[in-house]
Amino acid sequence: MKTIILGAGYGGIATATALKPTENLDALLIDQRPYHTYYTLLHEAAGHGKTVTTPIEPLLEGTGVEFEQASVDHVDLDGRAVHLRDGRVLDYTKLVVSMGSVTNFYGIKGLEEHADVLKEIEDAEGIFDWVNRAFESSYTGSRDLIVGGAGLTGTELVTELAQRSEELSYKTGMPKLKLHLIEAGPNVLPTVDAKLRERALKVLQGYGIEILTSHKIVEASANSVTVEDSSGARREIEGGKIVWTGGIRARDLLRGEQLVGGPGGRVKVDQSLRALGYPDVFVIGDMAAANASDGAPVPSTAQHAGQMGRHTAANLMRAAQGEEIQPYEPYSQGEFVSLGGLMAVGAVNLPGDYRIALTGVAAHVMKIASHLRWALSIK
């Protein structure tokens, strides 16, 4: 059974590292980079230059999975063929698609051309370099930084940058950066519990961040964005750096006559995470439009991508041994949002529908613990 795993993000690397040498199962992991990125820590790389990658090949020792660094152009599901950008075509018996997502700019004029994103380590490095330059005496541009989108990524980024700005201001004697956080919806961190959201808002305000909720970015230029409030009134905000974190969509890589699309360009899958119409193709992570048994959509988060990957690995080994594959049922261990330094908010889910909310250092420790748990799970 020739199995190809596309993508070494959370879903793909979880699949690969959970596999064990199994008769009739030959697996190949393909990614365009030779390392796995801890995407939930990219804000720390952007703010403080932290290393948030780990080499892939050592993670695969003992799994029987081979690795190849290559870029995928598209997948012909009807022809069972993976087309690489170097012109090669690879056939497969089973396929795992975990290629993640790309930024959704929603057609906002000028945004894609002028805004940075935070999707890969190179993006984080670019933001980190700009912040450092803004505290050099030779820098002459605007020292305002605009973050569009106040979800998990945008909030973690802007607070990390606020802390970094305070550090560099103290070190250089220069004024802190002016940070703007812009959200089209009525709240920052809309998926977080209301009380935790209130705590996070106080932290944001304490940093002196200008928070504009119920304001949508309607246009961007090289040095500014135009925002519109709920009444239709517009204003222009100047900035030396614009970072957009306001949405994602699935990568458009799959081609198939029977493919069924879902929200955000995702692929609809059955309860076992197989693409509808293609029972030999598993789609996991951000590319999957998956649902729990009660019909609730599976969130596009790192922890759920990891769960999907481990479950898919188990199903691949079952299939190789002629056993029936099993349905996937998501579960949430909780979530934590870093707010710079030792500050965080979040909640832990316990058996029996118990949920414990945490703030401050305790939440920060749990955030670190969740990352360490993930890092250990793929070694």
TrEMBL record:
Residues 2-309 form the FAD/NAD(P)-binding domain. InterPro entries: FAD/NAD-bd_sf, FAD/NAD-binding_dom, NADH-Q_oxidoreductase. The keyword Transmembrane does not apply. GO terms for biological process: aerobic electron transport chain. The keyword Oxidoreductase applies. Keywords: FAD, Flavoprotein, Oxidoreductase. One of its GO terms (molecular function) is NAD(P)H dehydrogenase (quinone) activity. Belongs to the NADH dehydrogenase family. This is NAD(P)/FAD-dependent oxidoreductase. The lineage of its organism: Bacteria, Thermotogati, Deinococcota, Deinococci, Deinococcales.
